[in-house]
Amino acid sequence: MSIYRVLFAFATLLLPFGAAAELSKKFGNYEIHYNALATEDLAPDVAKAYGISRSRNAGMLTVAVLKRNADGTLQPVAAEVKATAVTLTARLTTLELKEVRESGAIYYIGEYRLSRPETLRFTLQIQPQGEPRSFNIQFQRSFD
């Protein structure tokens, strides 16, 4: 499967996500794509397909891990993904992430509660399968 089909499958889950653009970060041969958005931004059919309630007061984190092969192509890989979200008032939420595999894509989804307006600081710890080290990502998302 081409990387474009994998990224399309991942992006389809997120559409429409408006201003909450998908982010990515590279760690050697790995490329990690992630995003946090309000579930009200999900298309109704996408939310239904994944059993996610569309709500102004609920959010969703998505993470996908890709590995660059020797020929330069990217391939989805399984990983152990841990995530937390902290509000500016120090309320900590540990997200339970579920792995989704479909059409050759592998990604992780976790839901969280929102109290708007709110800014969340996310911390991700990702250890790709077979990789001895883990990768850490921190990012912030504001919800109005």
Task: Please provide a written account of the structure.
The strands form two sheets. Strands 1, 2, 3, 4, 7 and 8 form a six-stranded antiparallel β-sheet that branches. Strands 6-5-9-10 form a four-stranded antiparallel β-sheet, with no helix packed on it. The chain has two helices and ten strands. It is globular. The longest helix is centred in the first third of the chain and has 12 residues, at 3-14. With 144 residues, it is mainly β. The chain has one domain (3-143): Sandwich (Immunoglobulin-like). The N and C termini lie far apart (38 Å). The chain is 13% helix and 53% strand. It has helices at residues 3-14, 44-50, and strands spanning 23-27, 30-38, 58-68, 74-76, 79-87, 92-95, 97-102, 105-113, 118-128, 135-143.
Present the secondary structure layout.
Elements: H1 3-14, E1 23-27, E2 30-38, H2 44-50, E3 58-68, E4 74-76, E5 79-87, E6 92-95, E7 97-102, E8 105-113, E9 118-128, E10 135-143
Antiparallel strand pairs: 1-2, 2-3, 3-4, 3-8, 5-6, 5-9, 7-8, 9-10
CATH class: Mainly Beta
Q: What is the architecture at the second tier of CATH?
A: Sandwich
Euclidean distance between termini CA atoms: 38 Å
Number of helices: 2
Please give the largest β-sheet: 6 strands, antiparallel
Count of folded domains = 1
What form results from the Cα inertia axes? Answer: globular
Helix percentage:
10-25%
**CATH homology-level superfamily:** Domain of unknown function DUF4426
The proportion of residues in beta strands is: over 45%
Low-confidence stretches: 1-9, 15-20
**What fold name stands as the CATH topology?**
Immunoglobulin-like
Count of strand segments: 10
Provide the succession of SSEs: HEEHEEEEEEEE
Average pLDDT score: 87
CA radius of gyration: 15 Å
Q: What's the quaternary structure here?
A: single chain
Task: Please identify the structural class as seen in this structure.
Answer: mainly beta
Pfam family, one: DUF4426
Keywords: Signal
Protein name: DUF4426 domain-containing protein
Organism: Pelomicrobium methylotrophicum
